Amino acid sequence: MNREPGQPYEHIRVVVPATAANLGPGFDSLGLALALFNTVQVAAVGPDSCPDAVHTVEGEGAPTLPRGPDNLVRRSMAAVAARAGVELPAVAVRQVNAIPLARGLGSSSAAIVGGCVAANEVLGRPLSQDDLLAIAVEIEGHPDNVAPALLGGLTVCYAAGEGARCLRLEPLDPPRAVVAVPDYEVETEKARQALPPSVPRRDAVLNVGRAAALVGAFATGRYDLLRAAMDDRLHQPYRAHLVPGMDEAIAAALDAGALGACLSGSGPTVLAFAAAQEDAIAEAMKQALAALGVTAATRVLDVCLQGATVTYL
Ligand code: HSE
């Protein structure tokens, strides 16, 4: 932030990272920010302008995303104004999206967090970061993508009373994330409907230990733990039929030297952590998916320690 709250502005730019939620065993709890960014830029417009006409979307989702009040950025901005009990002035919104839609890399969370943070700035920062997180969780429905999008690094979300609390950790010398992004979408809602209402206790126990080990690995730099710690019994097995090639891509990544691998969020992106051989791991994942007829784009992404950042222009 390079301006005091309430100062006049021409443009406010909010840059929000992509996120990988769950990270294997941490269903609805763990999330990690990745260095791939969406931008939400707002500009003051005259009182006579129709704000819905002043909304552009570039990059991912440009042909399909709604403009106007149904747009997730606009809805999130309206939610912040409502919580602050004030009216949002007319603003033009420009979205520049690099995060692919409905692929398990947190595109909707980036829109929500971008809108929440932008509105809070426009209004002179009436809400705290905790308030913004609570609003974003309410809109998204689960906390594990919005938390790292807002805060950066590794986030651990946990239930406390009625709401969600969040602990942000700075990963120690983190490995890089190799992602294979299939060319089809998985709607999170559908992926959630695939989950059973209850799971065997032994599976829950396995996940508790692995999730704790995974957090320990990132906190201490013990990335040799990831191979076992990223295994999951709570959601990946139930979603495999929605993500053809998931198991094969994970196995190929591990065979090629990945430290650990999992489904990113609710998929279909498969994520592998790597300390070396990133290109070979990416190629192995791509080939494993291609063998099943799935075309995927691969990328190597750094872990992003910064959450949503604001610049006044
Ligand atoms: N924890 C959520 C899920 C993340 O797996 O449904 C969605 O990206």
Tags for this model:
Alpha-Beta Plaits; alpha+beta; globular; 10 helices; 4-stranded antiparallel beta sheet; binds L-homoserine
Number of domains: 2
Number of strands: 11
Radius of gyration: 19 Å
Q: What is the arithmetic mean of pLDDT?
A: 95
Examine the coordinates and then state which fold CATH places here, giving the name of the CATH topology of the largest domain: Ribosomal Protein S5, domain 2
Name the structural class.
alpha+beta
Distance between the termini: 11 Å
Number of helices: 10
The set of bound ligands, ions and cofactors reads: L-homoserine
Instruction: Please give the CATH architecture of the largest domain.
Output: 2-Layer Sandwich
The SSE string, one letter per element, is EEEHEHHHEEEHHHHHEEHEE
What CATH first level of the largest domain would be assigned?
Answer: Alpha Beta
Biggest pleated sheet: 7 strands, mixed
Fraction of helical residues? 25-40%
Low-confidence stretches are none
Shape: globular
